[in-house]
Design brief:
The complex is a heterodimer. Chain A is α+β, with helices and mostly antiparallel strands. Chain A has four helices and seven strands. Chain A has two domains: about 130 residues, no CATH class; about 35 residues. In chain A, about 25% of the residues lie in helices and about 25% in strands. Chain A is extended. Chain B folds into three domains: about 200 residues, Aldehyde Ferredoxin Oxidoreductase,  A, domain 1 (4-Layer Sandwich); about 190 residues, Orthogonal Bundle (Aldehyde Ferredoxin Oxidoreductase Protein, subunit A, domain 2); about 230 residues, Aldehyde Ferredoxin Oxidoreductase Protein, subunit A, domain 3. The chains are: A alpha+beta, B alpha+beta.
């Protein structure tokens, strides 16, 4: 049986037109209120999963959505010049990362990630998009066809290695593996 | 649990170096709401009339509007109040932008500053962590550098910094406090300088709670969309390039010269290009669907944003064109000047030079070109050098010091405050009342609910009335229906128009709502965003305190009378309530005084313009009545103005 299959997926996309952003933070307010418990019971933009990176003196207004958490900050960064304006790479970065306090629960410090306001029943569009009256955020759903690899069965060795990693940490396991590899290599040469 | 408000205020004494977080009484919220109302109560209770405005005992209060930091669109204004050094009365000043919401999220409804630091300091607030920090290295720095330096020191680019520039540090009367794209103009700037407080940096990460979450959100989402779609709210000057109204009708120079045919299509086209060739974008304030600020990049200048009539003041004072405003505004703003009063003060000084009251000796090294003269004087005033040291007192203050006839050139102030440069022909009774009695410094902070002009076409008039839901009472419909000539309506209508206009501003300033979506915008098209019919619901859903129109109206009356009494206690009396003598060409002193009496009477005030004991007690301000009696301002037996024998005499 062919392990690669064609699949149709809906990609939810927020289109950001930074030129139209006025920096009113309505997106941040809506996001924080929607994710409050109970729903809409509070406003706190520090809890928002969207943030307008704003620097009026450089005409920088960029709404950025919280993405994946990362343990370590980048060891190098780009600086972009777009149409004469300079942007720090962090301006566009969605990561909850140690270099900044964005996208972290203010009470626990735990990372926040945008969930596109998934809820039951589903919303017509995410809250931030609905709140943006300036057209800086628009919502699109696109159908895409993807080729997906079939399900891979995990082997015993992988499960065993995973336990070793859990117990000793990946660094020690990798060190041990490379030492074993080296010994094996030396043995081959002697032989 | 407190909703919409935090229930705490931050008390900072700069003399002692003490910082305290104080819980407030929720009963006060129901009485005074927040913003200017709560600030007035604090100033009444804690700053006795003997206190000199420059003294460390004066308070400087950054008071959040009750609805700031919630989901209510357009609620972001902070009332920055103090006893104003310019005239010793309650200083009215408002700042939009983001400072208020951030203060709420830091856990405070207001910041109360008293005392005076030994040397320049700034206040750094991050939730419950509050520090008074050294700011001597920021001395003389402009707004932009100050804000940037403090953000860098705190390693927090998201902190909002409200700062004064050199003008504020030098206690210039026209100094403002700036934060991002917003300013608290005039009265509080010099007091912040006197307290040696260079800036307040604030950042908050706490929740602002809503009492009825689902209802509040549904209502606010609807309001947001309504405001967005409503062409009658927001600032037209942000997008409409036809600015013939100000240029043809307002006076140029030191409120002196009308240029009735100045505007033309070709000028409009030229200025439109000038603006859009240099404009980066429109910017807005916290949670507002209107973007009223224009962000401008001008060659060899830092970016700056302006709003509304701030676009016109410098070039109109100097008889130049828009390019001059774009060139000088970023410099003036960075020095920390208010753009309404400052150009008038400079024009006043140059007029005195022309008239020979000041001489070349007073302006050593001043260039001959008028543009360069404005820069020269800006710097002289900001750093109080030479004649700048005198002009730093504002038009009235400087005129009194200069003397020698300079007083007659101070022709556009009320209670020592520079007014908009409007000089018209025929007396407008409602505007007479607003300008004479208003305690909000400028007409734009008083007018706004009732239209400025009648509609003559009967069909259009009826259509306007049909859509006019904001009217608090049907009688305004009737008056509008019978209204044909601007200055002709019954006196009681003029009095009540003034009262309603005031009401909306007082409510906005206590709630944090911007006048551009509320009090100032009813007069154009009649469909403003907020009015006494929807405000109660907004307050109830966000705060959980039950409100209706009557209770809300009583809050307006309470705050209005409290501020009035505070000013009466500091010497405000009837004889000071005079619009500039040349505001209208044709005057009628007798009629004006009769009108003033009727207004005082309607307000429940004495012939001298002081709230009577009964008026104060009716508004739960019995403690104010007691105090006024104790101080001899009232004897307790006064009657309202029309019952006063002097009113009868006036009539005869």
């Amino acid at each position: 049986m062919d392990s690669n299959r064609k699949k149709t997926k809906i990609v939810k996309e927020i289109r950001v037109d930074a030129k139209k952003c006025v920096g009113c933070k309505a997106c941040e307010i809506a996001c924080s209120a929607f994710h409050a418990v109970p729903k809409f019971s509070s406003v706190n933009t520090a809890r928002s999963r969207i943030m307008v990176v704003m620097d009026e003196m450089r005409d920088v207004f960029v709404p950025v959505r919280a993405g994946a958490y990362t343990e370590a900050e980048c060891n190098g960064r780009n600086r972009y010049v777009i149409e004469g304006k300079e942007y720090d790479e962090c301006t566009f970065c969605p990561a909850s990362c140690p270099s900044r306090d964005a996208f972290k629960e203010p009470d626990s410090g735990l990372p926040l990630k945008c969930d596109m306001c998934e809820s039951v029943p589903p919303l017509e569009k995410p809250m931030c998009v609905d709140a943006c009256t300036f057209g800086a955020l628009t919502y699109e759903e696109r159908e895409v066809v993807r080729t997906e690899a079939g399900e891979v069965k995990r082997e015993d060795m992988e499960i065993g290695l995973e336990q070793l990693v859990k117990k000793y940490g990946s660094k020690r396991v990798l060190d041990t593996l490379s030492r074993l590899q080296r010994l094996e290599h030396q043995g081959e040469r002697r032989g | 649990m407190r909703y919409a408000e935090t229930g705490f205020q931050l008390e900072v004494d700069l003399s002692k170096g003490s910082i305290e977080k104080v819980e407030t009484d929720p009963r006060d919220t129901a009485l005074y709401l927040g913003g200017n109302g709560m600030n007035a109560k604090l100033l009444y209770d804690r700053v006795p009339p003997e206190t000199d405005p420059w003294s460390p005992d004066n308070l400087l209060i950054f008071g959040n509007g009750l609805l700031n930091g919630t989901c209510v669109p357009g609620a972001n204004r902070v009332s920055v109040n103090t006893i104003a050094p310019v005239n010793g009365f309650f200083g009215h000043s408002l700042m939009g932008g983001f400072f208020g919401a951030e203060m709420k999220m830091a856990g405070y409804d207001r910041i109360v500053i008293q005392g005076e630091a030994p040397d320049l300091v700034y206040l750094a607030i991050y939730n419950d962590k509050v520090e008074i920090r050294d700011a001597t290295h920021l001395r003389g720095k402009g707004m932009v550098d100050t804000q940037r330096s403090i953000q860098e020191e705190l390693n927090d680019r998201r902190a909002w910094v409200a700062a004064i520039g050199p003008a504020g540090e030098h206690r210039v009367i026209m100094a403002s406090i700036d934060c991002g794209n917003s300013s608290a103009a005039r009265t509080p700037g010099p007091v912040m300088g006197a307290k040696k407080l260079k800036a307040i940096a604030i950042r908050g990460t706490k929740d602002v709670y809503l009492a009825h979450p689902a209802e509040a959100w549904e209502m606010c989402s609807r309001l947001r969309k309504e405001l967005d779609a409503n062409p009658n709210v927001g600032d037209w000057m942000a997008t409409d390039e036809d600015d013939s109204f100000h240029h043809n009708n307002f006076s140029w120079g030191n409120a002196r010269v009308r240029r009735k045919t100045f505007w033309s299509d070709s000028l409009e086209e030229r200025w439109r290009n000038l603006k859009y060739d240099h404009m980066d974008r429109w910017t807005g304030c916290w949670n507002c669907p209107k973007a009223c600020h224009n962000l401008i990049s001008w060659p060899n200048r830092r970016k700056f944003s302006y709003k509304c009539y701030g676009k016109d003041t410098y070039h109109m004072a100097s008889f130049q064109e828009l390019d001059f405003t774009f060139e000088i505004l970023p410099v003036a703003m960075d020095l920390g000047f208010d753009s309404y009063s400052t150009p008038q003060v400079i024009a006043f000084a140059l007029e005195l030079l022309d008239a020979g009251i000041l001489t070349e000796k007073d302006f050593p090294g001043m260039p001959s070109d008028v543009r360069q003269r404005f820069y020269y004087l800006l710097h002289k005033i900001a750093f109080r050098e030479g004649i700048g040291d005198v002009l730093a007192y504002g038009t009235s203050g400087a005129a009194a010091i200069i003397g020698n006839g300079a007083e007659t050139f101070d022709h556009n102030t009320v209670k020592k405050f520079e007014q908009l440069p409007i000089k018209l022909g025929k007396l407008n009774p409602a505007y007479f009342l607003m300008i004479a009695t208003g305690e909000d410094m400028a007409i734009t902070q008083i007018e706004g609910s009732f239209p400025q002009d009648p509609i003559t076409d009967p069909e259009l008039k009826e259509e306007f009335i049909r859509k006019w839901v904001a009217v608090p009472d049907k009688k305004f419909h009737d008056w509008f229906r019978q209204w044909v000539k601007r200055d002709q309506l019954p006196d009681e209508a003029m009095v009540e128009i003034c009262d309603w206009n005031e009401c909306m501003h007082y409510l906005d300033d206590a709630l944090g709502l911007c006048g551009f979506v509320s009090s100032f915008r009813g007069q154009f098209g009649g469909t403003t965003g907020y009015h006494v019919w929807n405000m109660p619901q907004v307050i109830t859903h966000t705060t959980g305190i039950e409100f209706d129109k009557d209770r809300l109206w009583a809050c307006f009356q309470r705050n209005r009378n409290l501020i009035r009494a505070l000013n009466n206690r500091r010497g405000l009396r009837r004889h000071m309530e005079r619009p500039p003598e040349d505001h209208w060409a044709v005057r009628n002193e007798e009629y004006e005084q009769q009108l003033l009496t009727k207004y005082y009477d309607f307000k429940g005030w004495t012939f001298d313009g002081i709230p009577t004991k009964e008026t104060l007690e009716r508004l739960s301000l019995g403690y104010v009545a007691e105090d006024l009696i104790k101080r001899g301002v009232l004897n307790g037996n006064e009657v309202t103005a029309l019952k006063d024998p002097r009113a009868k005499k006036e009539k005869e």
